Amino acid sequence: MNILEVRHIQKNFGKHPVLNDLSFSVPEHSIFGLIGKNGAGKTTAMKMIMGFLKPTGGEIRVCGENVAYGNTATNRFIGYLPDVPEFYGYMSAKEYLMMCGRITGLKRLQTSKRIQELLPLVGLDGIKRRIHSFSRGMKQRLGIAQTLLNKPKLLICDEATSALDPKGRKEILDLLSVAADQTTVMFSTHILSDVERICDSIGLLHEGKLALHGKLSEIKNTYRKEAVRIETLNEAQARRLLEHLHALSFIQSVERSQNAVTVQLHDPQKNGLKIIDVLSDEQIPIMNYELLEPSLENVFLDVIK
Ligand SMILES: Nc1ncnc2c1ncn2[C@@H]1O[C@H](COP(=O)(O)OP(=O)(O)OP(=O)(O)O)[C@@H](O)[C@H]1O
């Protein structure tokens, strides 16, 4: 079942079109990464999913229900985590979550039980300090606990890792992976390595549409380049290797950067052995030899160029 369906969304600000016939769906329990350059329209799309912005055209369904602008009924299915969540700093994490439970209509006992499940999950169990002394990463983890309090069907995270250091980012990404057992995650970011770490499917927003949409593994396969990278001892050896490789018929292109040579070739599994023969015949020492995996960054640059 699709938790979210976005169909033919158009959004203009004045005469300026930001989203143009945007369509995608997010299946239950997946982690969907919405990526795009700054200003691509990620936040605009998320605001429309929560009914805070009116689409110029098209429709959005959350858990099968139509999202209506200005009507937050479908937000009972949604938890929202912004890039920098705001809290009452004088409260402890537990007090804050108790207050959130009360505001959202949960019974006291129910909230208390849920907090006992969530605080260990986000690594804040037993921390009695006030929130104002929390690190950014701790605040973001508390934000995740807050969004999960009401057991949302869809957790929307807008640039949730962008303001964090690498350790804080890893903690949040690990947490979102675990949270996907309980909910479905839609995660917007411009940090492509974060998407590669946790998302199973992605949408690349470019010029108002999804220029790419699908399973990350399938997208990477489609854009797979047949290439190997060989690191030699020094630049002189890499130059020597370059000259010998130019003569081989199965090589499509070859380029050198310092002591490393990157080769695009047909059938790298088979023809790679012939490169090894050259290295051996010419006695060129190898520091490293690897089959190149396509990175999301390369795919991204290929698509939006
Ligand atoms: N209320 C508004 N009025 C006019 N233009 C707007 C409004 N909100 C957003 N825009 C424009 O729409 C475009 C998309 O903005 P949006 O914030 O959705 O992009 P984004 O992909 O989330 O980018 P970022 O990562 O920089 O936040 C931008 O050109 C922005 O200036």
UniProtKB/TrEMBL annotation:
Annotated InterPro entries: AAA+_ATPase, ABC_transporter-like_ATP-bd, DrrA1/2-like_C, P-loop_NTPase
Pfam families membership: ABC_tran, DrrA1-3_C
Domain ABC transporter: 4-232
Single GO term (MF): ATP hydrolysis activity
UniProt KW keywords: ATP-binding, Nucleotide-binding, Transport
CDD domains on file: ABC_DR_subfamily_A (cd03230)
Source organism, top-level taxon: Bacteria
Keyword Kinase attributed: no
PROSITE patterns: ABC_TRANSPORTER_2
PANTHER family named in the record: ABC TRANSPORTER, ATP-BINDING PROTEIN
Family under the similarity heading: Belongs to the ABC transporter superfamily.
Name of the protein in its database record: ABC transporter ATP-binding protein
